[in-house]
Predict the structure.
Amino acid sequence: MTENIKSMFSKMNDETRIEAIKCLRKEFNLDSSTRIKNTWLIGGRIPPAYQERIVHIFQVLLRQQTLKTREIIVNF
């Protein structure tokens, strides 16, 4: 599941990545955005108890990112 999470994070644009880290900080009551990014998302050391919830959060964020992208394309 960790590889799936890392893959989803790599598909996010900068705006979505920032939002993802904000969501994780809020969801799990964490203080350090840097620790989340470096240890969890890049390093792959995500606590097993949190992985399922992170997958769900990332799926929602990627869906929103896709919808925004489609909206931009349609507006051109």
Summary: Residues 48-75 form the longest helix (28 residues). The chain has a mean pLDDT of 91.
